[in-house]
């Protein structure tokens, strides 16, 4: 479990995370949402141990994260960074195999052969056919799948995802989160994901944390958190909240800024996109 | 490896003293096995082969191995295939120490060891200076480190040029040193360099696995369980030791640490577990042949080794770069 006790982070006199207290104790999908610059990525960096809190403490189990050696931490916690993997020359299979680093001895050896684990991760992410292709010859979406396969072989208990769906089209966004969700349920993991898309966050997360200006603004289930008022107050955007099925997760539909639903009829605007010269 | 052995054999056989192939090999076989198999030679011939040629050939191999391994180490840590011992200013740092000693005529201070020791100390100091310049908030960013290296390097370059222009009679000696040469080196230099190689190369090879993970970025490597700061420190210090040791016996020889690992990367892929040991061997072969050319091209006069490696290395590197560009977007 991860617990934040009055955690603050100040970088060059700017407080990017302010006095946040929360804990993720039960297995589940936890979403962190909020506008740009709200401190979501900074919060994730605090959880991953990439940054140390200026005050307060970030605990994993009952010890502060900084008390864990890197290798021990990597055996419990896997991190998918924003932007995914760079286009290097390693093959997909080699890349995924490197996820086993934390379980290897001094000479890169492992007690049990990790190949079945690697095969199953490749299979799951649909990368079997691409396994011998170098990363620099993959599309952004394929690289993102390779990145997820790499942390899959880490067999983590906790997984931190920083905007895992960036660069993916909506089909892949849904597919990726579906895979993560299924895998989370199977292994009983704690998955914490920074998500930009409120609708995806609402679809896949059990709990949401809303950040604004570095502070905890709201938290709870998607039904309690995602409201017209919250979208207005936090994002300064006008939206309707709709339910596509009774008891299902809320979804938002946007209005144009300050105009509301009563807009110019669509036909009016169509005139602007008539091809010239007809 | 086989190529290395063959290269050593050929290089020993070539020289300006006009010994026949059978004489050279007869001497070698006699010295190694104690059997006088063939050839007709004098004591001075034995001295030429054993004291001058063989020591020089071995030294060329060792220097090449040090420089190429150091280059591979720096590249792994900096995640930049164009980085090499010189990017960090370490070689310049070592040469400043050497030039200083020559300019003030202090060679006699500690005998044969004076120049290497001082070069090593100034090389290491340069590394610390670069680190101090690059380090902020306890961490070293890759870009800042290269920038700091370039700044320090240009400062030290000016310093060396100043000393050269201030000195009268010893200009040649300093130039000789700065262009790199293996002339007038002996077995003592081999024994001086060997311990660094024996410690340094396995040390860096030991971290090859971690350097592979570095390719994905430092933070990513950390999340996969690598102790990033410790790996950087050990590999950088190891590479600096190798560089300083090589510069100490041969002066500044460019392009070895740059070309050899890069060429190997194109041949065997990005895996540092292969690149590092192969760099040691490939660097040895590269410098050995460059030195053989330096010895015999204008025989009996010698060209500076640094000139040969630059003449061969620079166009070769440009070609590699061009091909690499044609072959698609870079990566590592």
From TrEMBL, chain A:
The UniProt record lists the keyword Transmembrane: no
Top-level taxon: Bacteria
Gene3D superfamilies (alphabetical): P-loop containing nucleotide triphosphate hydrolases (3.40.50.300)
Leader sequence residues: none
Keywords on record: ATP-binding, Nucleotide-binding, Translocase, Transport
Domain ABC transporter stretches: 2-238
Name of the molecule in the record: Iron complex transport system ATP-binding protein
Single annotated GO MF: ATP binding
PROSITE patterns: ABC_TRANSPORTER_1, ABC_TRANSPORTER_2
TrEMBL record, chain B:
Chief localization: membrane
InterPro entries the UniProt entry points to: ABC_BtuC-like, ABC_transptr_permease_BtuC
Family matches, as SUPFAM superfamilies: ABC transporter involved in vitamin B12 uptake, BtuC
Keywords: Cell membrane, Membrane, Transmembrane, Transmembrane helix, Transport
Pfam families with a match to the protein in the record: FecCD
Organism, as annotated: Paenibacillus cellulosilyticus
Family that this chain belongs to: Belongs to the binding-protein-dependent transport system permease family. FecCD subfamily.
Location relative to the cell: Cell membrane
Entry's Gene Ontology molecular function annotations: transmembrane transporter activity
Transmembrane feature ranges: 46-74, 86-106, 112-133, 145-164, 194-213, 233-263, 275-297, 303-322
Listed PANTHER family: ABC TRANSPORTER PERMEASE PROTEIN MJ0876-RELATED, FERRIC ENTEROBACTIN TRANSPORT SYSTEM PERMEASE PROTEIN
GO BP annotations listed: siderophore-iron import into cell
Name of protein: Iron complex transport system permease protein
Topology term for the membrane: Multi-pass membrane protein
One Gene Ontology cellular component annotation held by this UniProt entry: plasma membrane
């Amino acid at each position: 479990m991860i617990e934040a006790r009055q955690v603050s982070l100040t970088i060059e006199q700017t407080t990017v995370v302010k006095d946040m207290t929360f804990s993720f104790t039960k297995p589940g999908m936890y979403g962190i949402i909020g506008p740009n610059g709200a401190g979501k990525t900074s919060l994730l960096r605090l959880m991953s141990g990439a940054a140390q809190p200026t005050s307060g403490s970030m605990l994993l189990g009952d010890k502060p994260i900084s008390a864990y050696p890197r290798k021990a931490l990597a055996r419990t916690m896997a991190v998918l960074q924003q932007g995914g993997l760079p286009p290097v020359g390693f093959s997909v299979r080699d890349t995924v195999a490197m996820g086993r680093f934390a379980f290897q001895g001094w000479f890169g050896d492992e007690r049990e052969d990790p190949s079945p684990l690697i095969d199953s991760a490749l299979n799951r992410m649909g990368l079997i056919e691409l396994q011998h292709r170098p990363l620099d010859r993959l599309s952004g979406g394929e690289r993102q799948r390779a990145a997820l396969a790499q942390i899959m072989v880490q067999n983590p208990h906790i997984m931190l995802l920083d905007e895992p769906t960036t660069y993916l089209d909506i089909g892949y966004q849904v597919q990726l989160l579906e895979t993560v969700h299924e895998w989370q349920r199977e292994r009983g993991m704690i998955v914490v994901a920074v998500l930009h898309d409120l609708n995806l966050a609402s679809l896949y997360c059990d709990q949401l944390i809303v950040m604004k200006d570095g502070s905890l603004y709201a938290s709870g289930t998607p039904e309690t958190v995602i409201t017209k008022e919250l979208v207005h107050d936090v994002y300064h955007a006008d939206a309707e909240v709709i339910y596509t099925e009774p008891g299902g997760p809320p979804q938002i539909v946007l209005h144009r800024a300050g105009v509301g639903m009563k807009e110019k009829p669509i036909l009016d605007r169509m005139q602007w996109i008539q091809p010239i010269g007809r | 490896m086989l190529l290395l052995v063959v290269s050593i054999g050929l290089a020993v056989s070539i020289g300006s003293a006009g010994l026949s192939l059978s004489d050279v090999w007869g001497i070698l076989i006699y010295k190694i096995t104690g059997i006088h198999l063939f050839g007709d030679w004098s004591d001075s011939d034995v001295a030429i082969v054993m004291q001058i040629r063989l020591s020089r050939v071995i030294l060329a191999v060792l220097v090449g191995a040090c420089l190429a391994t150091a280059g591979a180490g720096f590249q792994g840590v900096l995640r930049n295939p164009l980085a090499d011992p010189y990017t960090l200013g370490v070689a310049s740092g070592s040469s400043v120490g050497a030039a200083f000693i020559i300019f003030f005529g202090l060679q006699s201070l500690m005998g044969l060891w004076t120049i290497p020791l001082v070069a090593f100390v100034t090389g290491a100091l340069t590394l610390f200076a670069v680190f101090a310049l690059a380090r902020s908030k306890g961490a070293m960013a890759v870009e800042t480190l290269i920038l700091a290296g370039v700044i320090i390097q240009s400062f030290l370059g000016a310093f060396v040029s100043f000393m050269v222009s201030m000195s009268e009679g010893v200009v040649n000696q300093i130039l000789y040193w700065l262009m790199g040469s293996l002339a007038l080196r002996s077995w003592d230099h081999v024994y001086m360099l060997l311990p660094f190689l024996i410690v340094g190369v396995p040390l860096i090879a030991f971290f090859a696995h971690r350097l592979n993970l570095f390719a994905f970025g430092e933070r990513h490597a950390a999340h996969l369980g690598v102790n990033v700061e410790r790996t950087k420190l050990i590999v950088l210090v190891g590479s600096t030791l190798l560089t300083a040791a090589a510069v100490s016996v041969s002066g500044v020889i460019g392009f070895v640490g740059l070309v050899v690992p890069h060429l190997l990367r194109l041949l065997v892929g990005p895996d540092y577990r292969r690149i590092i040991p192969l760099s040691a061997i490939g660097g040895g072969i590269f410098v050995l042949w460059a030195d053989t050319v330096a010895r015999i091209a204008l025989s009996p006069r010698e060209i500076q080794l640094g000139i040969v490696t630059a003449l061969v290395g620079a166009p070769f590197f440009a070609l590699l770069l061009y091909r690499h560009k044609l072959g698609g977007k870079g990566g590592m």
